[in-house]
Amino acid sequence: MTGAGGPLGQSILKAVRSASLPCHLITTDRHPLSVGFFWSDRHYVIASAEEPGYLPQLKSICRLEGVHAILIGSEGEMQVLSEARETFEREAKTRLIVSAPDVIRVANDKWKTVRFLAAHNLPYPRSALPEMREQLESLIADAGFPLIVKPRNGSGSKGVYRVEGRQELKRVLALVERPVVQEYLQPDNREYTAATFVDAEGRTQGAIVMRRELAAGLTYRAWVEENPPLACITRRIAEALKPLGPCNVQLRLTERGPVPFEINARFSSTTSMRAHFGYNEVEMALRCFVLGEDVRPQAPRPGIALRYWEEMYLPPPQPSSPAPPVARLETTGEME
Fold first, then answer.
1. Is residue 286 located within the same domain as residue 317?
2. Does residue 137 share a domain with residue 52?
3. How many domains does the chain have?
4. CA 52 to chain centre
5. Are 170 and 193 part of one and the same domain?
6. Which of 30, 135, 281, 321 has the fewest CB neighbours in a 10 Å radius?
7. At 270, phi and psi to the nearest 5?
8. 250 near 155, Cβ under 8 Å?
9. Using alpha carbons only, how large is the chain's radius of gyration in Å?
């Protein structure tokens, strides 16, 4: 599993550890003090995805360790590995659980997400690109203020602004890189995160719906609910998008019905919560894409998830101590 230091990687790691499959877990990250390192069986510090040594290093680890599958725990690595998937799998003899590049491009770009939803007759937030002046004026006339300004490529709440009028809109547009403007979906207390799993045949397998509250852009409280309409629209989105494995959709339940506003064609930070309630996308991915099994998840258990923060404490390094148990790699991809 890559990205052992971030929230996404930690969520995947928890799901691995709660699976019924016995797994030997090897983690990677670019920083030697990544918390996931201390929860795994073996770990490696490697280059970041933007550096030329990244792919050779990852291949070297796969060959050395006999890795069966890679679970991607950071968004920055996803596009790189998706583009290199065919060659990587052949040379490393490892299964990359990642969607096709065009799927990731649709999911990672808020404007492309809107166009995708519209093209498949699915509900979507009314949106505009600020450089398309007539389009923006039409959105203002149709939806009114408040509006939401967010970067086309982004996650969580980073760079997301609620604007109350034209002056604030003008000011915020200058702050956001490649912005998209969208209607403000109301009410605030009817936001959901839903997920389904797409198997090797392109079929969706079950779904789980959780009403949620946010803190710092992440799910903070979540209630598992039986909500057939939201489960249905989540599966329709996944069937149209055709990701490989997990598909996570963010929605708000508005007066005109459920409106999806974000798609994650990947595992997400709530993967561990879903696993706890019986919908373990990580285990399904390993069974489906590595072991070749059919997956038929049971209905998730009802319950409530409360997220909290916890620290890990380490003693200071001693000058006379041996190097920490982190196998470092040169940019050539060869072990030291």
1. no
2. no
3. 3
4. 24
5. no
6. 321
7. -100, 10
8. no
9. 21
What is the per-residue pLDDT across 135-181, written as a single tens digit (0 to 9) for each?
A: 999 999 999 999 999 999 987 778 999 999 999 999 999 999 999 99
Question: CA 268 to CA 265: how far, in whole Å?
Answer: 9
Strand pairing class (161-163; 179-183): unpaired
More confident residue, 334 or 83: 83
- Amino acid letter, residue 27: T
C-alpha 291/C-alpha 114 separation (Å) is: 35
Helix axes of 101-108 and 110-119: crossing angle, nearest 10 degrees: 110
233 and 283 together in one domain: yes
Sequence-distant (≥ 6) Cβ neighbours of residue 58 within 8 angstroms? 2, 28, 46, 70, 88, 92
Q: Which pLDDT tens digit goes with each residue over 96-120?
A: 999 999 999 999 999 999 999 999 9
Same domain as 242, residue 135: no
Q: Where are the alpha helices (DSSP H) in the chain?
A: 7-18, 54-65, 75-83, 85-92, 101-108, 110-119, 133-143, 166-173, 228-241, 271-276, 281-289
- The Cα 191–Cα 2 span in angstroms is 29
φ and ψ at residue 6, rounded to 5 degrees: -100, 170
3-state secondary structure of 163: strand
Per the listing, tokens 């489960």 go with 231
CA distances from 39 to 15, 25, 267 (A): 12, 9, 19
Angle (deg, nearest 10), helices 101-108 and 75-83: 150
Q: Which structural domain range is residue 16 located in?
A: 7-99+312-328
Q: Which residues contact 269 (CB under 8 A, 6 or more apart)?
A: 7, 8, 11, 218, 219
Place of tokens 């000058």: 319
230 within domain boundaries: yes
Structure tokens at 47: 């280059």
